[in-house]
Amino acid sequence: MKEKFHALTLEEVFKLLGSSPVGLTEEEVKKRIEKYGYNQIEEERESLFVIFFRQFNNPLVYILLFAMGITIYMGDKFDAAIIGGIVLINGFLGFFQEVKARVSIQSLKKLTETKAKVIRNGKEKIIPVSLIVPGDIVVLAEGDVVPADIRLIEATGLLVDESILTGESIPVEKKADILLEKDAPLYKRANLLFKGTIIVRGKGKGIVYATGKNTEIGKIAEKIKEKSPESPLNRALKSFSLKWMFILFGILSFILFLGIFQGRDLYKLFLLIISELVSAVPEGLPLVVTFVLVIGALALAKKKTLVKHLPAVETLGSATYIVSDKTGTITEGKLRVEEYTATDLEMLMLTAALCNDADEGRGDPLETALLRWLDQKNFDWKKARKAYRRIWEYPFDTNLRLMATVNKIDGTYYLFVKGAFETLSKMTEGDISQLEKWHDSLAEKGLRVLAFGYSKLDKVPDDIQKVKIKIAGLVGFLDPPKEGVKESVETARKAGIKVIMVTGDNIKTAVAVAEKVSIFRKGEIAILGEDIEKYTDEELYNLLKITSVVARATPEDKFRIVKVLQRNKEIVAVTGDGVNDVPALKVADLGIAMGSGTEAAKDVAKMIITDNNLSVIVDAIKQGRVIAHNIRKVIYYLLSCSFGEIFLITSTFLMNLPLPLYPVQILWINLVTEGVQDKTFAFGKEEKDFMAEKPKKPEKTFFDEKQLFDILYTAFIMGGINTALFAYLLKITSYETAVTIVFTSLIANQWINGIQSIKEEPFLKKPLKSLTVNPYMYIGTGIGFTLQLGAIYLFSEWIHTVPLSLQEWSYILISSIAVFTLIEIKKWIESIIR
Could you tell me which residue ranges the Cation-transporting P-type ATPase N-terminal domain spans (predicted)? Predict the structure, then answer.
C-alpha cells in the first residue's frame, strides 16, 4: 500500500484497511492471506533443477566428463557409459541428500517461528507472525519484536530501537495521538512501528498496514539479498581441501610422469589419473558434514534445544564459557515473598499494589508475587487500584532499575516507586543506616530485595531521579534454584567450561544464589557491573578467569564481557530471555534464548531452549561434542580411505607393476564404500564421557596431529597390504583375477576401517557396545557388500571383474583380518598409554 499512514487519522486508517478496534474475523484473514501472502520475507529458493545440476558443478567432475568424452571419441563406449553412470549416481546421491537436508532445516525453522499477540473478533490470541495480515490489531509490550509495519492506536511510555532501519542506536519515543506531514522522513514517523524493530520500553497497540515484502525492511531485503557468511567449519574445510588438492596434484603428477617414463599406455594412464583424483578428493565432505549437523540438530530438538542457525551446532561442543543470567535459568523464576520489613506497612502495601502492572497471576513474576503476598495480608489491591487512579507511569528502566507511577489520592498526587535499594536510597534524605542493615540481612539469605518508596507531589515529575522519597519498606523474594542446575554446573566445570552468572541483582543476593548451585566457590570473586569500566580489556579478561558472579550488570556490561572473552579466543555461549540480553545474545558464538523469553531475545539467538534450565544447556553442549566427534570421524574415514587408494597406486607404480585398478573400479569403490558408509556417521552415539574432557579449539577438534597420524597409519596399512597382495597374486594367477581380488579387498578393507571408526577404543573391548553404538554402519556395509557381489557376478563385464572362487575370497578375508588386527593393536596401545 502506498498510502501515507503516518499522515492519516485513525478513523481514516480503519476505513482504508477495512478493520476496527475489535480486529478481523478469521474468514477475512483467510481472504487477506490469499491477497497479500504470508507475513514473511521469502528466501531466494533454488529450484530442484538448479540443485541437481549443482552436484556436477565441480572442476573434478568436468575433468572426468572430459575424459569420458575422450573414451567415446576413441571408441570405448562401454567404459564411457560406466563412468557416466557412476557420475550420475553420485550426482543423484548428492541431490537427494541436499534436498533432504533442506527439508529438515525448514522443519527446524518452523519449530522456532516467532509468535505475536493479536486481537481478532474482539479476543486476544497468540498466532505465528507469518499469519498476520493488513488490518490485524497487534498488542505489543517490552521486549517484543515488531511483527509488521503498524500504525499506532495506543502507546504508553513506548520506546523503540529502530537501529535495524535507521542505524541510530538511541531508542526513539513513539506516540499514537499525533499526525505528521506526508513527506516526513522514516526516522520522524513517531506514530508508526516497523517490522523487525524492538520494543525497548512501554507498551502499545496498533493496526497492521503492511506485511512481508511490503514492509520497510522487506523492501530493503528485496533490494539486497545477502548470503549468510560461511561457518568457521566450512571455511576450515575449504582451506583444508585446497591443501589436500595441492598434495594430491603433486603425487598424481609424479605418477603421471613415472608412468610415461615406464612406457605405459597414455590413454589408460591419463584416465586412471583423472579417476583417482576424483576418488581421492573428498568433494562430498561439506555435504556429509551438513547431514551430520542436521541429524544432530534434530537430536537436540528432542532434548528441548531448537537450533535456528545450523552452523551453531558446529561449535556447540567447543564452548569454553557460559555467560548465564540468573532468573528463570539458574533459578525457578517463581518468586514468592519470603520476608519483609517496613517503616510504614500501609504505604508499603499500597505501593506494592499501585506501582505494579500485574493482574490476576498474569505479568512479571516479581509483580505477581507481590499480589499474592497482598492477598495473604488481606489487602484489597483491586479496590485500591479502582479508588486511586493511575495518571502517569515510568516503566521499568533497566539502567536505573526502578519503576514509578503517579496516582491521585483524595485530590493529591502521590508518586509510588519500587526498585533496587541502591537506586532508591539515593533518592531519600536522612539517615538510612537501619535500612542498609535490613537490606544486607535479607540479601545475605539469598533473597532478591526490592525497596518501596513514596512521595507527595504538586505535579507529574519531569525527571524521576530528582524526586525525593521516603522508603516505606523492603521486601525479600525467594527464587529457589532449579532442580539439576548444581549438578550441571559441576559437570560443566569438569568439562573445562566456566560458568559466569551475570545478573541485575544485588551482589550479596547473587553470591548467595551462586553458592547454592556451585557457580561461586572458594577462591573465586564477585564483581559489580559498574566496576567493569575501570579495567582495560586485558585486565578484565584476567579478572574474568577468577570471577563467577557479575552483579548489578547492565546490558552494556554483559556485552563487553562477551566481547572481551571472544577477543581472547574463548568460545562463549550466552543465555538470556529479556530485551536487555539482546546485545550479548547477538554477538555471542552461541546465543541461547529461553523459550519463555521475549521475542527480541529469541529473534537474535542461534538456539532456543524450550525448558528454561541451565542443565538443558549443559546437555546440549554434551550433544554438541558428540556431533563434533562424529564430524571428526567422517573426516578421518574419508581421508584415510582416499589416501589408501593413492598409496596403492603410487607403490605399484614404483614397483613397476601393472595397474592394480581400472578407472571404473576406482569410481565404483567411491560408491560402495564412502557412498554408503560416510552418511551413517551422523547417527553415532556417545561412546565415552565427552564432558570429562577439556574443550578443544574447533580446528584442533577436526584436524590435529593425532588425526593426521591415524589417517596416514590406516592408509599405509590398507595400501601396503593390498600392494603386497597384488604383487603376490600376479605370480600365481591371471592379471584379471588379481585385479578383481585386490579391487574387492580394498573395498572390504575400507568397510573394516569404517566399522573400526565407530569407536575410539578397541573394537574387542566391550564388543557388544561396538555392535550397538551405531548399527547404521553395519546396514551401510551390508548395502555395499550386496552391490559388490553384483559387480563381481552380475556386471563383471562392465566393472572389469571376473567371478571369484571361494578360495580366492579367502585372500580378501585374510587382508581384511590383517587390517582389522593392525588397527585394533594401535587402539590397544593407545588405550594403555592413556
Answer: 4-76
